[in-house]
Automatic annotation (TrEMBL):
GO terms for biological process: galactose catabolic process via UDP-galactose, Leloir pathway; glucose metabolic process. PANTHER family: ALDOSE 1-EPIMERASE, ALDOSE-1-EPIMERASE. InterPro entries: Aldose_1/G6P_1-epimerase, Gal_mutarotase_sf_dom, GH-type_carb-bd. Keywords: Calcium. This is Aldose 1-epimerase. It comes from Lutibacter maritimus. One of its GO terms (molecular function) is aldose 1-epimerase activity. Pfam families: Aldose_epim. The keyword Calcium applies.
Length: 318
């Protein structure tokens, strides 16, 4: 009897736990994942596009997210912290594209450059459809359905995003279903910022030799050689570039922690967007299934026929 009690007590101590918090402003509702034994804490905001706004391990902050207040909401509008990018990662030039001989006009939310930026699920309200916590892992699935009434993207779809936490890994899985009566174009991406107490001494590493040359609207033009070799010690380097990488893996090492991003290859090339804000306290490392402006340049563009689904997964090893 005493042994059974001790086993139960130990199991409770090492288990993952999932809690939900309702706030006065529902956009700031939270799902928190903790494991005191592993010293892991993470927070997801279902009503901000199911975005990940906190990830700490051993009290070290890995994800640079927002604060749980109005100031945080304002920051999210401008910085897109950890937002998921669908159906179009990054920019669409003038918000215009042609697909199957039809021309569409998306809303341009990057007014300074007149581009459509980062798709349209980053601010959508996701429903929590599954939570499960055990000694080994925690799993949360969030779902959003669109009936095809989005400006410039009149296609019905459902997207499920599943977070799976284990000891040293966070897997983010995507499942997109075409619920319309015609095929549609799409791409997927993730826009996390990773904190660094010393960005200049942090190291970015990936296998690749080419990036896109950008015009004055930050739209990709031709491929050019990357002006540096990897691994790159960032120092004073400014990045706002899309790289064509040869392996679907990227490593980022700071004085405090190291992460590896693995993401599935969906075409002959892998796409990685990197951005260093002027604050120089973090870096955006964004895996994408396609290049910016893919609705027009077709680089990595995916299509989904009616009633079919598409799966993609990102593994964040920390």
């Amino acid at each position: 009897m005493q042994i059974d009690y001790l086993k139960k007590t130990i199991a409770q101590k090492i288990m993952f736990k999932i809690t939900t918090t309702q706030n006065q402003n529902s956009l700031l509702n939270e799902v928190t994942i903790t494991n005191k034994y592993l010293n892991i804490k993470s927070t997801i905001y279902p009503n901000l596009g199911a975005s990940l706004q906190k990830l700490t391990k051993n009290s070290i902050e890995i994800i640079d997210g927002i604060t749980n207040d109005e100031k945080g909401l304002e920051l999210y509008k401008n910085k897109f912290n950890s937002s998921f990018l669908f159906p179009s990662p990054n920019r669409i030039d003038d918000g215009k594209y042609t697909f199957n001989n039809k021309t569409y006009q998306l809303a341009c939310n990057e007014t300074a450059l007149n581009n459509s930026l980062h798709g349209h699920i980053f601010n959508k309200r996701f429903k929590i459809i599954k939570t499960e916590a055990t000694e080994e892992n925690a799993e949360i699935t969030l779902s959003y359905s669109n009936n095809g009434d989005t400006i410039g993207f009149p296609f019905a779809y459902k997207i499920d995003i599943t977070y799976t936490y284990t000891k040293n890994n966070l897997a983010i899985s995507f499942n997109v279903v075409n619920n319309s009566n015609e095929e549609f174009p799409f791409g997927l991406g993730w826009h996390p910022y990773f904190k660094s107490t010393n960005l200049s001494k942090s190291i970015l590493n990936f296998d690749g030799t080419k990036k896109y040359n950008l015009n004055e609207k930050m739209i990709p033009q031709n491929e050019i050689q990357i002006p540096f070799k990897t691994p790159l010690t960032i120092e004073d380097t400014f990045l706002d570039d899309c790289f064509l990488i040869e392996k679907n893996q990227t490593i980022f090492k700071t004085p405090d922690y190291e992460i590896t991003l693995d993401f599935a290859c969906t075409s002959n090339e892998n796409y990685l967007q990197c951005y260093t804000p002027n604050t120089r306290d973090c870096i955006a490392i964004e895996p994408m299934t396609c290049a910016p402006n893919s609705f027009n340049n077709k680089r990595g563009l995916l299509t989904l026929i009616p009633k079919e689904s598409f799966d993609w997964q990102i593994n964040l090893k920390f």
